[in-house]
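As described in the Methods, two query proteins were run sequentially through the folding procedure within a single session, without resetting any intermediate state between them. The first query and its resulting structure tokens are shown here.
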Amino acid sequence: MKFNSKYLPIIIGATFALGTVVGSLMNAPTDDQFLAKNYSKTKLNKLIDFINNEYVDSINTDSIVNLTVDNILSKLDPHSVYIPPSEQAEVAESMKGDFVGIGINFYMYKDSVAIIKPIENGPSAKAGLKSGDRILYAGKTKLYGRKLPSDSLFSKLKGLQGSEIELTVFRKSEQKKLKFKVKRDVIPIKSVDASLLIGNNIGYIKINRFAETTFNEFKTGLTRLKQKGIQSLVIDLRDNGGGYMEEAIAIADEFLKDKQLIVFTKSKNGSIDKTFATKAGSFETGKVYVLINENSASASEILAGAIQDNDRGTIVGRRSFGKGLVQREMDFNDGSAVRLTVARYYTPTGRSIQKPYKKGNEDYFKESESRIATGELYAKDSIKVADSLKFKTPKGKIVYGGGGIVPDVFVPMEAEHGNENVGYLLQTGIVGHFVFEELDKNRNAFAGDNFNTFLAKMKSSDVYFKKFKNYILMTGLDLKLDKTKALVNRHITAEFARQLFGELYYYDVILKDDAMIKTILNPKK
């Protein structure tokens, strides 16, 4: 399959748009009061009945209803959406924070299901499956040579907790077929990717979304870092599109003193609901830094706004996405759902950070492209702020509303101006696939190496950088990587570290030369 590099920002934007569908969610209602009244017949009902009974050809009226709902919601705002059953199950699972399965990371490599890495201590790892194994059969169901979509594959591998499935795999390193009996179990879907030390007494926690389990995951990581004596904490919200606002609020409470305002919402009828910090905060005095970028949205902006407006910490990075709308979910019997915007949220100083959406959804989600054109991703002076939306924090710091959180300390995008597509490329899964395929060719290349030996080996040669250049050319992407060689090499090395040693080693590599982290560790005098 060939790609045109000019479409990379669109691919990333589309992925991010799906992420922000989750938005900032409130508890679901128990009935349909937000979408329908108990009228005897609506114009829409009559039309559907008329088509169903009288139209000359047979037609699936359910598809008409779905299309109608989509069209209605598209006229409201970008975050009021209809989610069909096939997507709703996946979104709900992601936000729940776990599922029942066999515990592997995989992708379709050529015509087979290739295991990138079994999840540590998961069912597959315990059963003896290894990285590089190809799953040929799940029970009696053939999985290879069929180009099955991911949702079909998941359905074959999932099941009831404690149920057993026999997997037939091909192990390339041994050139033979093997059979394993795997007992399915609950597999966590982590929303906190890492919690580790990055400097003297400085902790780091990376949050990828705000799911049901996020606060508990965060609190576990924070507790562990406090035991190691941290005095400062970096919360990384880059590329975090949001999720449950209650989870973001609970995390903000860890840093704010009793009765400090975290966020407030305002509904259609003007009613205001304020949420304050409690006495439960466990890190109310240490230094706090929050990392954001143009893809940090919704619940991420609630947390960043609460820290900034209360003068509690320093926001580092680039202007956030700008989503200040709150959704409420209504589920339907067919497994679909509607998420309807029911309120706006405001940061403690009274800011709405919602960016304009009057020009339509496509323009709204592609707004980040205009930030490239204006140079905003490279210079703080290019950020457009309106004086009419100026607010003051309790200590007199000026903050702005009207379109995202503007950071206190600006850090430009690492890719050079004009090479943005390299940055977008590194956000896709292509680096992970490249590394898997390289390891798959020779899994003994790093056999016996410890982490330091591995790093020395990667630094001593450009072989994988050259191979990666050829790899992306073969996919049809015509990108010039030489000017961003150091950045690309860092991502390649980090991905090798992840697949060879584990997730924390990925962050050990990727953060060492990260521009935002370096700004915190080595502030300008």
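Immediately afterward, the second query was submitted; its sequence and tokens are:
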Amino acid sequence: MADKLTKKFLEQLNNFVKDRQPEKIWLACSGGPDSLALLWLLADNLPSEISLNVLHVWHNLRAEAEAEYYKLAASLPKRVQKFQAFYADVKAYAHDCNLSAEVAARELRRSAYAYCTNGEEKAYVCLAQHADDQAETIILHVCKGSGMNGLCGIASLKRHLTAPETVKQIKNAGYLKLVTGTCATERQFSELSASTLNNACFYTAWRPLLPLLKKELLEYVKARKLDYSVDRTNYDPHYERNFIRLQLLPALTERFPQTVEKLGNLGATVERTLQATDYLLANNAQIKKVRDLSDAQKLEAGEKVLALSFLAADNKSDFLTLPETVRNLYLERQLHNKFPDLLLSRTQYNNIQHLFNLALYRPCKDLRLIILRKDCLMLLIDRLLLIYSSPHFNFSHASFDRSLIYKKCRKYFLEHYAVILPLKSNWRRYYRLSGELPENMCLRTILPGDYFNVNTANSCKRRLLSDYLHKSNLPEFLWPELMVLSEKNSRHLYHLFYKNLTKWQTFSLLSNDKKL
């Protein structure tokens, strides 16, 4: 059995090394049978040029956790180059941040992982989730009404982002400390390095044991006579995952013996299907005409934006020709790609879908805003759908100033209306002005009475800029963001510009006046 398990593991290891070419492996080891089996599998088979390191998080939730730390530290294989332990004050962090113990422990572990990898691209955190964990995860997601992403279960390789504000809070309050010394008399707790934490906001997790069963790992550690620790909280059915592991999954396995393997196959199949779906969506001709403005401006640390514009030049979008199921799937995939950790209830997702349909069928100039959660909100104006998430704001607070969002999202609005601006006219000649404007020209904000000429078949008519802006659906709160090029002391306009959006070194000008 041990040889069969090693063969399966080597297949995962060889593919990973070939594809990723890692330089460092940080194994998250609790001292339990799963992580201990993975430790020795790596120690025996990891290529020598790859650094093998072990990290351990001492959660301080059980009396025996201290003894488990010392036992692990004393039994590490010689292949391990570095052992880093963290003391996590889960109870204090959960109390101060109003989190459950499970969520608090997970956030502290993730901060520890990010600290160890320190933002290095070739450093990976190796986790010991196996096929039984995969089955439990898929069942849990199904019971909670998960979508397609939940049916994928646990990803074998995934980058996890940790908000810099969370890491900073954890460090400053001392919720996570380094443990030095491997015996009680030598043990010390030291502060985390601030310079390292500023850079350590992500880590990439690798899970090579997902194809392996729990019973295979137990047989492996027993065959090697490894002294593993047992976490008694794993047998408390009060926790959701434990209930599935202890009661639901055994009942399913008794009736359907291959439940674990089949659920693992389901997760892999759904993952492959979504990969193919994403490829087809990305190469669809109609979808390609949707303007993704998500990168229209530089974001601050921790901020995320999904900004989709369905406004075509003729005010009609080819996107509408797609079946509704395809449009909704596109929205769902965009949400997952931009916000992989955003957990939405069905009501919240229905709200997003409602504004999504309004953007397609009933565009209007009024700004609509829905708060999804305290750090995430959704805005709709005309045919621009924008979802904005920031750890710097509390959108649910009663005193929240909405003008901050208008200011923050200004460029997305202007980029959206770039399709219908500048001025519509039959001006035929383009001029480029570099450097200073001619003496008879000025660049100024819009004023009442500003007009431009529109040439028709038989005559030239004046058209007020205010009328043009009203008919163009540009919201009035964006008018101050516009500037016009005109003759000095004249209300006659030659061109319309976005303030702080156009590069001032070069202007595009439409005019019939050759003296320019």
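The chain has 18 helices and 20 strands. We note this only descriptively and draw no conclusion about the first query from it.
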